[in-house]
Amino acid sequence: MTTPKAVCVGEGLVVLVAETGPLENSETFHRNSGGAEANVARVFAQLGVDAAWVSRVGNDGFGRYLVKQLAEAGVDTSGVTIDDERPTGMYVKERGSGSGDRYDLASGESAMTYFRAGSAASALSPTEIGESATELICRADLIHFSGITVAISDSAAQLTSALMDRSAIVSFDLNYRPALWKSRSGTAADVLGQHVRGSDVVSMGSDEAALVFGTSDPAELRRMFPQPEHLVIKNDAHTVTAFEGTARVDVPALRLDVVEKIGAGDAFAGGFLTGLLLGRSAVERVRFGHLCAAGALTGHGDIASVLPLDVLIRLAQLDDAEWATLDHAATVARLSEVSR
Fold first, then answer.
1. Sign, CA torsion 254/233/202/123
2. pLDDT per residue as tens digits for the range 178-225
3. pTM of the predicted model, to two decimals?
């Protein structure tokens, strides 16, 4: 079987993770990497998909760090352009300790402060991605990007609009970030709606769908957006509804002790799309997504550590009763024991 090729297009970010407690009290920060599309690319690479990341980074230490991190994770970074004028985007992650201080967050909660205005990635455009990136896109079986890329600049939205005309499968994750739309021309509902209609695979959270499109009901969203072959809606009841054409499946998530929610949506996307590229059934694709999301939900940081592909396949094929009682933590522990 030919290895599927996926290209993820969007901004990568350096993450500075503060100590727990009020941000002003943090004396040290742990450096990490993030960015929606970069996170998805890393999941692809872990699951054996030929993954590439197309982006722009500054000609600075943070940009070099991001490229190195992705390359070491097995992601093709030849489509990344170095920008000599603009800096690499970043964000600071504040983590709560539950101390009761008025500026502290609850234990386990986190908040992000972004520094991405005028970043190198905001200069993404149809004419500013480079020859290597163009070749990667032309060879791709699947192209993935998110509403964050659409929102960071008008030129980036022009690029994503152009990508929807490609013959590859086009995957779009809504990823609505209200703050990014404050300085953008056009309304989020109009621009994001165009991208939903122009993509083949669309994923969105029911909460963000309600904010952008006025409803969180999966059936109503399908009536509003019949165009994507695959429409995936994640809801607050921890069940994912996936439409393939007019067919619908509702697949419950795993029972987990959640450590942090950051990056879970990206991990889900990487798992679901891998299942799609491998020709797995509708239920199995969603279970791939749930299992990969668990790798993000049960650890700190944006980057999910996912189960091996053969394990994902075996678990995704469980019957409904076995799936309902699956203990993800015990599965990871057993695999760790075997690998020792």
1. negative
2. 988 987 766 899 999 999 999 999 999 999 999 999 999 999 999 999
3. 0.92
- Positive or negative, the CA dihedral 21, 24, 30, 31 is positive
DSSP assignments along 281-328, one per residue: -HHHHHHHHHHHHHHHHTSSSS---PPPHHHHHHHHTS-HHHHHT-BH
From CA 251, how far away is CA 270, in angstroms rounded? 17
Q: Where in the sequence numbering do the catalytic residues fall? A: 266
Residues in CB range of 39: below 8 A, 6 or more apart: 263, 266, 267, 270, 302, 303, 304
Number of Cβ atoms within 10 Å of the Cβ of 178? 11
Sheet of 13-20, strands arranged across: 29-34, 13-20, 90-95, 110-115
The string of pLDDT tens digits covering residues 27-42 is: 999 999 999 999 999 9
Spatial CB neighbours of 223, under 8 Å, sequence gap ≥ 6: none
Give the span between the Cα atoms of 18 and 104, in whole angstroms: 12
Q: What is the Cα–Cα distance from 339 to 56, expressed in whole angstroms? A: 38
Query: Do residues 233 and 204 touch, judged by C-beta distance below 8 A?
Result: yes
